[in-house]
Amino acid sequence: MPTNPVLVVHGGAWAIPDDMVDAHLNGVRNAAAAGWRALERGGSSLDAVEEAVVVMEDDETFDAGRGSFLNRDGKVQLDAFIMDGATLRGGGVGCVERLRNPVRAARKILSDSPHVYFVAEGAERFAAEHGIALCRNEDLIIPREVDRLREYQAQHSTGGNDLFAPEISHDMLSHDTVGAVALDRQGNIAAATSTGGTLNKAPGRLGDSSLIGCGCYADNLSAAASTTGWGEPIMKLVLAKWAADRVESGSLPEWIAQEAMNYLKQRLDGHGGIILLDAQGRLGIAHNTPRMAWALRTKQEEDAGITRNG
Description:
Strand content: 15-25%
Radius of gyration: 18 Å
Shape: globular
CATH class: Alpha Beta
Largest sheet: 8 strands, mixed
Distance between the termini: 41 Å
Structural class: alpha+beta
Oligomer: single chain
Order of helices and strands: EHHEEHEHHEEEEHHHEEEE
Number of domains: 1
């Protein structure tokens, strides 16, 4: 019997300023519309999360694709992951510098490779060999981010090589990682997450977004999850898998999403957000940051918002 499709997207969890609210709302709405079109055409949950994330990678509002934060060397380095809940197949890329839409390459890895991950030049080579055009890194850089990096480095210069010097007020620092989870008519779920990482990150640093079970996970027997926020604490807790496992044990995604955020805060003083969806179409959206951008589509409902915490 056909299942009623569900799609949820997020566009980051942090202290989104008032003057950026409209851009975030428009961005997540556009992403949800693209993913929903795929589902309405009878496409898979994988198709839906890929198309939704591509829209946000192309939107300079978010920390994904063009317009992402710059690393310490002034380059864009991108990570993405996508996972199929029906087969547990996944595809991920890390530290890529010449891909406009890293989630497209991740999908190609999932469908066309026996491997799960490719990184850096190897990922770009795989993408090119499978028909995905490469770009120059300069094409991904926008003036706003050049100015942001220059200002940040001027304010936080320590004169040394302190690995922790950039780590400040993580609920206030922008975490515009993007992601999507979907349920299709066949009853299969999928998840995808894409990011440019943190501002002024060390070259080669990999965050949670492209790590299976950390920033992204999907299993028809449990749930599909995509996280956003400060990557290191999320990685240490393998948070997406942690949340999915508790849904499989019988808890509602709505409760587990909030519990995951409490766990993140209590264990490691971490900040972020999560979207969670099971194969019955039950969902959860939660964050422990001041604001989070999200959008939802079902046959009965179309909604988007930037929720406040407290």
